[in-house]
């Protein structure tokens, strides 16, 4: 079964458009989760007593240590993700924060797996895993840094 010339042209044009906007989805993810986590981290840093009490209620060990740690990771990591700088590292740290949040706060209150998967924390977790694996995309400071510091470029086998 062959494709008509009209369908072939349409298919070609569609792929050309998609190729031109590939920078947009990672940027959109970074902006949304970056702003969200900058604001969350800022709020936690200015309310550490409440965050510490909340962590204690979840039986998170050393809440006095973990509350400012998590707040700082959210603020700084969110800013780095937003800027697209050191994105993989920041996203990996934020993945850990979301995994602990799901394990300690979401899972116990959820109605099974669907309750966990339907949570905003699961969406954040998926976004951070994506960014940690795929990076910040073309519209990022990571791309600028790699372009100007050849030693930071991944070997071809590592990109595959």
Order of helices and strands: HHHHHHHHH
Low-pLDDT stretches are: none
Q: Kindly, what is the distance between the CA atoms of the first and last residues, rounded to a whole number of angstroms?
A: 33 Å
Helix content: over 70%
Overall mean pLDDT stands at 93
Task: Kindly provide the radius of gyration, computed on alpha-carbon positions and rounded to a whole number of angstroms.
Answer: 20 Å
Number of helical stretches of at least 4 residues: 9
Total beta strand runs: 0
- Strand residue percentage: under 5%
**Total individual domains:** 1
Q: What does the overall shape look like?
A: globular
> Sheet bearing the most strands, described?
none
Return the structural class: mainly alpha
Can you lay out the helices and strands and say which pair or pack?
Blueprint (H helix, E strand, L loop, with lengths): L4 H16 L3 H22 L2 H10 L5 H21 L3 H20 L6 H5 L2 H15 L6 H8 L7 H4 L1
Helix pairs in contact: 2-4, 2-7, 3-4, 4-5, 5-7
Walk me through this protein's architecture:
The chain has 160 residues and is an all-alpha fold. It has one domain (24-159). Helix content is 76%, strand content 0%. It is built from 9 helices and no strands. The protein has helices spanning 5-20, 24-45, 48-57, 63-83, 87-106, 113-117, 120-134, 141-148, 156-159. The longest helix has 22 residues, at 24-45. The protein is globular. The mean pLDDT is 93.
